[in-house]
Amino acid sequence: MKLFIAGLLVLLTLLQYRLWWGVNGLHEYFSLLDQIHNQQQDNQKLVERNQVLKEEIANLQTGTEALEERARNELGLVKEGETFYRVVRGKK
After folding, report:
1. Is residue 63 situated within a structural domain?
2. 29-82, pLDDT tens digit by residue?
3. Is residue 57 part of a domain?
4. C-alpha distances in angstroms, 91 versus 85, 86, 88?
5. CB-based contact 77:71 (threshold 8 Å)
6. Would you state the pLDDT for residue 51?
7. Are the C-beta atoms of 66 and 60 separated by less than 8 Å?
8. How many distinct structural domains can be found in the chain?
9. Does some domain include residue 51?
10. pTM of the model
11. Reduced to 3 DSSP states, what percent helix, strand and coil does the chain have, rounded to the nearest 5?
12. Are 70 and 60 in contact (CB under 8 A)?
């Protein structure tokens, strides 16, 4: 009988080891859950960024204000009759 109980304890120990640290065990399961959570956060950020870019594209395609603003900020363009002033801060 003692041999039978010892055998069951060994079997239980081996099964517990496989459950916690073995292939497809709980350790790997929780690790995968964490990876899934991180990937879902990254995907949500990309969805939000794509939405902003889609809105910007639509705005550039339909309106002239966004195109003009972008040309002024990025290319330094001025309209006819306007005077461009650049304010340069001195070193402290």
Report:
1. yes
2. 999 999 999 999 999 999 999 999 999 888 878 878 877 888 887 887 788 888
3. yes
4. 19, 16, 10
5. yes
6. 98
7. yes
8. 1
9. yes
10. 0.55
11. 75, 0, 25
12. yes
